[in-house]
């Protein structure tokens, strides 16, 4: 019964953890790294084709974004996720594949003048995303799911995103039973639309995120409607636009919720019918999923609006931009407006075009409404960059840069502590592993759990292995700092396909370990014949 830490250890993105029990290989999340990396991640201990199950906490790309890559490399097991997470992944993974392909095409067009540069290869394609989506197995909150002998799981709402969950994993091996809880991302309290985080019922081991483990949101409950109204009024009176880089899933819907109330109450005087553009096909699709989800997913305030027949995410002069032409037209209209566009950290997507058109304008405002990872354009802007480069051009930062303070889908330090206190007992919890936080934040939060709450807490690095039966480290690693290397994407696309095919073949071979000798011999002869042909 082994736990191994792979991703989001002393880092915020790229969440991935591995469990081995009763001969089954399990991943909890398989996320993409975003922003600047601090440490190298350990490789998966087995080939993707040997993974039996993936348990997914929620749909955000830093938790789900490598699922298509797993499929590309041979994974064909089941992916367990809540119903809402499965629906959101249906659009988010396809969107990610589109971005991967688009970026590869763009880089290759630029590189064509240099015949010595090989093609840049997308991490995965739309076909890979569709394959991963077909493996999603939706489950309900609070339902005990038996996935294999000695392995049961239960998903509990943690209020971070529609469908987000902490996953309770119940394991039995050789007569020994253990319970381990993966927190996923714990949500902030009093968020619009979705419920507050729910506690779980104890555990032997816990993996707790620590994104905001060293800071507090505002002590007073923020009045987002008031703050947003003031920013809109100030900007519109100057004749500018309010450009909001926003995560397409979750944060965009919260903003629409606030803007509906602002318009309903007439809080932006003189501009009551101001236009709002949601310029992200993904955000548009995600908003539709929010609207169609079960009413049980929502908090009491949103439920009451729905019972009255009010769509909490819609209002007059809301414009949904789907095509590239729709997006371009927005910046040729001089009327002051709100532009909500992805990505939330400004590292890709249509938001970069809107920044190019508005950052140099003193009358415009760029409003940040979420976490900005180290190394992203968004982080540079909130830290006061005077100029930024967009599409090869230096752009002066003259616009008003604002942050909607406290608007976060993540629990702050106190929120995390309260969730731990309400869910676990230091007398019965063997160890808490602190993950999913910036380098020193994980250490600080682990110390806080030890000193104030008396838990045995530890912040592991990627590659650390822990025996859940013996309650001891098998291997305790230190972080391996990232070194600048050549661009690994620039290898032959055909050769990369060949490597992926080889990994899948090996995973298929291992699944036939106990097959009939006749079949195994035939399979071996076919592989040898193929190898002989190409070895020549």
Fold topology:
Elements: E1 2-7, E2 16-21, E3 24-30, E4 53-55, H1 61-64, H2 67-72, E5 78-82, H3 83-111, H4 126-134, E6 136-139, E7 145-148, E8 151-157, E9 165-173, E10 176-182, E11 205-209, H5 224-237, E12 242-245, H6 251-265, E13 276-279, H7 281-292, H8 300-307, E14 318-321, H9 324-330, E15 338-341, H10 351-358, E16 365-368, H11 377-382, E17 387-390, E18 393-396, E19 400-403, H12 413-423, E20 431-435, H13 439-453, E21 457-458, E22 465-467, E23 472-475, H14 493-511, H15 517-535
Parallel strand pairs: 3-4, 4-5, 5-6, 10-11, 11-20, 12-15, 12-16, 13-14, 13-15, 16-19, 20-21
Antiparallel strand pairs: 1-2, 1-22, 2-3, 7-8, 8-9, 9-10, 17-18, 22-23
How would you explain this protein's 3D organization?
It is built from 15 helices and 23 strands. It is α/β, with parallel strands linked by helices. The chain has two domains: 2-216 and 409-475, Ribonuclease Z/Hydroxyacylglutathione hydrolase-like (Metallo-beta-lactamase, Chain A, 4-Layer Sandwich); 224-403, Rossmann fold (3-Layer(aba) Sandwich), CATH 3.40.50. The strands form four sheets. The protein has an eight-stranded mixed beta sheet with strand order 6-5-4-3-2-1-22-23. Strand 20, helix 13 (439-453) and strand 21 form a beta-alpha-beta unit. Residues 485-492 have low confidence and may be disordered.
């Amino acid at each position: 019964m082994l736990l191994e830490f792979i991703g989001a250890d002393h880092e915020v993105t790229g969440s991935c953890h591995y469990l081995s029990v009763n001969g089954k290989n399990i991943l909890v999340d398989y996320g993409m790294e975003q922003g600047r990396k601090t440490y190298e991640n350990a490789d998966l201990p087995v080939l993707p084709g040997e993974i039996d199950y993936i348990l997914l906490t929620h749909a955000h790309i830093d938790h789900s974004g490598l699922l298509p890559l797993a499929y590309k490399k041979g994974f064909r097991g089941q992916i367990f996720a809540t119903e809402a997470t499965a629906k959101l992944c249906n659009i988010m993974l396809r969107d990610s594949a589109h971005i991967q392909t688009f970026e590869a095409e763009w880089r290759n067009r630029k590189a064509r003048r240099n015949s010595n540069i090989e093609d840049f290869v997308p991490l995965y394609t739309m076909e890979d995303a569709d394959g991963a989506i077909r493996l999603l197995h939706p489950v309900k909150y609070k339902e005990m799911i038996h996935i294999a002998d000695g392995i049961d799981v239960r998903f509990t709402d943690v209020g971070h995103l529609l469908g987000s969950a902490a996953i309770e994993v119940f394991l039995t091996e050789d007569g020994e039973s253990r319970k381990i809880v993966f927190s996923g991302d714990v949500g902030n309290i009093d968020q619009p639309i979705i419920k507050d985080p729910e506690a779980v019922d104890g555990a032997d081991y816990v993996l707790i995120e620590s994104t905001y483990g060293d800071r507090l949101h505002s002590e007073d409950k923020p009045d987002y409607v008031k703050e947003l109204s003031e920013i809109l009024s100030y900007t519109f009176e100057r004749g500018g636009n309010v450009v909001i880089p926003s995560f397409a899933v979750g944060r965009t819907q919260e903003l629409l919720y606030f803007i509906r109330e602002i318009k309903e109450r007439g809080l932006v005087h003189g501009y009551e019918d101001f236009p709002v553009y949601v310029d992200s096909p993904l955000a548009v699709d995600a908003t539709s999923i929010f609207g169609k989800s079960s009413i049980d997913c929502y908090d009491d305030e949103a439920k009451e609006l729905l019972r009255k027949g009010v769509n909490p995410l819609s209002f007059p002069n809301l414009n949904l931009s789907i095509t590239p032409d729709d997006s371009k037209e927005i910046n040729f209209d001089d009327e002051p407006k709100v532009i909500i566009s992805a990505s939330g950290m400004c590292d890709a997507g249509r938001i970069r075009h809107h920044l190019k058109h508005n950052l140099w304008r003193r009358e415009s405002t760029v409003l940040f409404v979420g976490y900005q990872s180290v190394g992203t354009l968004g982080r540079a802007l909130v830290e006061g960059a005077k100029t930024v480069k967009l599409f090869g051009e230096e752009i002066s930062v003259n616009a008003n840069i604002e942050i909607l303070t406290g608007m976060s889908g993540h629990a702050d330090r106190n929120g995390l502590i309260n969730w731990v206190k309400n869910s676990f007992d230091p007398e019965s919890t063997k160890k808490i592993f602190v993950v999913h936080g910036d380098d020193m934040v994980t250490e600080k939060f682990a110390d806080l759990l030890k000193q104030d709450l008396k838990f045995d807490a530890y912040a592991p690095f990627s590659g650390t292995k822990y025996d859940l039966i013996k309650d001891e480290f098998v291997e305790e690693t230190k972080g391996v700092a990232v070194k600048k290397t050549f661009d690994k994407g620039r290898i032959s696309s055909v050769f990369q396909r060949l490597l992926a095919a080889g990994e899948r073949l090996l995973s298929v071979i291992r699944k036939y370990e106990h097959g009939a000798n006749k079949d195994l011999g035939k399979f071996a002869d076919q592989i040898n014949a193929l190898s002989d042909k190409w070895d020549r």
